[in-house]
Amino acid sequence: MEENSNTPVYRIEEYPNVSDRAASLGCASPTNIALLPRNFLTARSREEFLHESTAATVRSLLRQAGIVETPLEAKGERFAHVQENAFEWIGPTIFLGAAFLSQNPTAVSVSLSVIANYLTDFFKGLSGKKSVAFTLVVQSRKGNRYSKIHYEGPVDGLKVLEKALREVCQNE
Amino acid sequence: MNDHISGIATRVTEAISNAERFCNMARAREFLVAARDALSTLLPIIAGVKTAAKGRADEDGANTCLCYAEMVTAVRSELSMWIALKDDDPNCAWEHLISAQMAARTAMQAHKLAEGLHAYVDRLHDMEEILFPPQIFVSPGFVIGSSTCSICEMEYGDCNHLKGKPYMGEMCTRIIRDIRACEEVSIVKEPASKRHRALQIGDGSSMRDVMSWRVVEGRGSKPEPRCGDAE
Q1: Which chain A residues are Cβ-neighbours of B117 within 8 angstroms?
Q2: Among the listed residues A17, A52, A20, the one whose alpha carbon sits nearest the alpha carbon of residue A35
Q3: What chain A residue is nearest to B121 in terms of C-alpha separation?
Q4: ipTM (interface predicted TM)
Q5: Model pTM?
Q6: B contact set with A (CB within 8 A)
Q7: Torsion region of B73: left, alpha or beta (phi above 0 gives left; psi -120 to 50 gives alpha)
Q8: What pLDDT does B142 receive?
Q9: Rounded to the nearest 5°, which phi and psi values hold at B2?
Q10: Helix or strand or coil: residue B2?
Q11: Contacts of B51 (CB under 8 A, 6+ apart)
């Protein structure tokens, strides 16, 4: 019998400077909330950037929830995205700027809730394990440090990201 | 609920209940065919009621009709699976099983009236393992330049339609338009589409059909024709 691998798990680790990395590739520095491409740290140029296939859906969800994004893309620019057909929901990396966190204390909760509601409907009619992978990159209040919070687990465990976020903010 | 839609609800419930009596291997083929054909006659009727609902801008009514159509399609596909197994065509049977699974899922996403279909979904999933040998699923990975929304044809993500949600009786899907590269093909345990699988496998001396285990004549012989009735 398989072990229960549907327990929510998150890990926190340091992340390189997002502003510096964005600037080095000629991108606008995200200040609010932004979706980071899968290869944000390794792409040699912005033309190589690849969004997760779920990025467009998450972007639309956030927009419909009234969350204003400061995207990496220039106006009219569109990054390519990957389309992988294994069944697992891998969310885009969401950058949370210090200004966004301080000015919008409930926005993270709203964002996660909107995404979780969508995923609950998305997984209807599927049997077997229904797990998601999600990553947040958080800018410290002083703006000089960045932390990555990576989550894997069931949809209803996404709220553990709020707890992880509080942990990151408290440890600054 | 609108009277037309209530009428459809009754007909669908009765037809599915009747058809389910034949969803097993023991029943004679002619009864499975008759049950399948009876379900087929419902689909254009449901489509007509859906068109009328759309004309009234009755989104709930249109989505209800979408749900009923998918429920009918699911059971119809399951019957087709049993028929194909009786006809010694396991590849076709698999295609119909996947159609049934996809239709059941769409029904549950289309309207809350199908929320009780969990047990049916689980039963269809169990059939994979009970009726068929283990499959080797493959999953391609692409780099995509652009994709469009099936509802409004705008670039997906620019509109407010969401993949997997129903809008006025139509399920939103993302249509890939610009494939820039095929990066890889992987063997995976849980593919997005269970139609993507190895069809033949070598046993050291010859190639065999994964399903039937019959020897396939000649290496690189042309693949089996697609099952004509699969959706």
Answers
A1: 125
A2: A52
A3: A125
A4: 0.88
A5: 0.91
A6: 101, 104-109, 115, 117, 121-122, 124-125, 139-147, 155-157, 159-165, 174, 176, 180, 183, 186, 188, 190-193, 196
A7: alpha
A8: 92
A9: -55, 145
A10: coil
A11: none
